[in-house]
Design goal:
By secondary structure, the protein is of the alpha/beta class. The protein folds into 2 domains: 5-123 and 267-323, Quinone Oxidoreductase, Chain A, domain 1 (Alpha-Beta Complex); 126-260, NAD(P)-binding Rossmann-like Domain (Rossmann fold, 3-Layer(aba) Sandwich). The chain has 11 helices and 15 strands. The protein has helices at residues 44-50, 117-121, 124-137, 154-166, 179-183, 198-205, 219-226, 248-253, 268-281, 283-287, 304-312; strands spanning 5-12, 17-24, 32-41, 67-75, 87-91, 100-104, 108-110, 145-148, 169-174, 189-192, 208-213, 227-235, 257-260, 295-300, 319-323.
Amino acid sequence: MSSPIMKAIVVENGGASLAWRDVPRPEPQDDEVLVRVHATALNRADLLQRAGLYPVPPGASPILGLEVAGEIVELGHGVEDVYVGDRVCALLDGGGYAEYVCVPSGMLLHLPEHIPMAEAAAVPEVFYTAYLNLYLEGELTAGESALIHAGSSGVGTAAIQICRHFGNRVYVTTSASKIDALRRFEPTRIIDRERERFVDVLRELGGVDVILDPVGGGYLADNLTILNKRGRLVLIGLLGGVSAELPLARLLMNRQRIIGSVLRSRSRKEKIEITRRIAERIWPAICDGRLYAVIDREYSILEADSAHAHMRSNSAVGKIVLNVPRD
């Protein structure tokens, strides 16, 4: 008996092109569900994986895609309190650029009917990343302040909203062309990285307690300069370079901490625990509209190549979504 098949995006020609091809459909294992994908969303990791620069974690699907929204169509053994037909979204280890994907039941977030699938697909990666790194890794507490680099990114727009939601002062860096788009989130201060040095602005404002940095590289010394005593720098990306000189004296005297953090390679157990925290502290505010994913543009998954080109242009504010056709 032949295995069931589905359509999925396949990376071809050494990453030069993407194609919508027939591939084997996954089957849910114990404590997993099979989700019919309605939408997925792009992440920088997709571009790196496509280029062969981001190894897939052991056991993860080699198909691109780290988040989805859809409906449950099949239950694996041992799944409880989840039903066929439920509308859900989820963080993934991989496999989102496809018609179907398997998801551990403990990583599901249940969607109310009023949230569109495209919007829900843009939620998991950015809200998990922002909350995890600001409040769990960075231990941001009441009365403290945060600096968000690349504030117009999907993670950046989620992080601004979360800080405002919990009452933390939040400063953001962005390019001049994206400043107006960020004003609606009412950060404490927007810093134009093309005309201002964030280190000068934050020094005058008294520094910050937590920095969320996807840039790395040459930002390191300036980050530590404006980080308060016992401040935490959470490094989540290396867009600006993989190495930098570390001012050890400042780090030592101010008892600062540098925390390296990734999400995709964490264990299933860790991700289920993070999901539980998100469900308790973030999900209710998403369900009632106080927090929401910012969508820059939607494409059909058949236009995945064009969507990737748009992400590479660095012109997006928020997330780029791929809608999956029903037929």
